[in-house]
Amino acid sequence: MLQYKKSFYNIEILYKNSVYVYNPFKGIVKLNQYLFESLNNLNSAKDGHIQVLLKNGLIVDKNLDEFKKVNFINYIAKLNMNQLSLSISPTFACNFICSYCFVKKSNVIMDKQVQNDILFFVENRLKAGTKSLKVTWFGGEPLLAFDILEYLSQNFINLCNKYNCRYDAFLITNGTLLNSEYAKILKKLNIKGIQITLDGPERIHNQKRPFENGNSFYVILSNLKKIEDIKFNVRINLCKDNYKYIDELLEIISQDSIRKKINDICLSPVFKTEYMKEEERKKCFEIEEYAEVELEILKKILSKKLPKKIDIKRVNVGNSKEVLWDMNIDPLGNVYKDEFYMGNKNDIAGNIREINLKTIVNNPHFIKHIMSNKETEHKCKECKILPVCMNGNLQHMFCISLKYNIKEQLKLYIDNGVCEYE
Question: 174-197 burial by CB neighbour count: b if 16+ within 10 A, else e?
Answer without folding.
Answer: bbbbbeeebbeebeebebebbbbb
